[in-house]
Amino acid sequence: MLRLVIFVSVACVAVNAWATGMVSQQCMECICKQENNGPCRDQGCVPDPRTLSCGFFQIKEVYWTDCGKPGAGWKACASDKQCASQCVQAYMAKWIRRKGCTPTCENYARAHNGGPDGCKLSGTVGYWNALKKQPGCANVN
């Protein structure tokens, strides 16, 4: 009985984990909170001025294409925590250094918000400042 409980606990932790990569787990959680304006969750697809943004990180189809099209499709991936976080990790691995940005949570968040050049755009500073106000994100790095 004890073995079963331990296995179930470990399996649950693995299911809830973010994909690993250059973006820290804390940074990933904070970006998700900012995209949801509160607790990290899959909020489905929300219309933006020009397109839809979907899932945990409000991923657009062009972002999903840039991250290598993981999973069973754009909307399915965006709504799957592991796949969506894998997409974010791949997107940052592709763009951060290529655009001359240092690998920090600030630059990941700003690139997530503003696209490949987002880490350099003044228009993404507000996103970063708002992210730091999310619970547990004031000192994220």
Description of the structure:
Its EC number is 3.2.1.17. The chain has 141 residues and is mainly α. It has one domain: Lysozyme (Orthogonal Bundle), CATH 1.10.530.10. The chain contains seven helices and two strands, in the order H-H-E-E-H-H-H-H-H. A two-stranded antiparallel ribbon has the order 1-2. The longest helix is centred in the first third of the chain and has 15 residues. It is globular. About 8% of the residues have low confidence.
Strand order of the largest sheet: 1-2
Which descriptor suits the 3D outline?
globular
What is the chain-wise order of helices and strands?
A: HHEEHHHHH
Strand content: under 5%
Number of alpha- plus pi-helical segments? 7
Distance between the ends? 41 Å
In CATH, the architecture is Orthogonal Bundle
Number of domains: 1
Low-confidence stretches: 4-14
CATH class: Mainly Alpha
- Assembly type of the chains comes to single chain
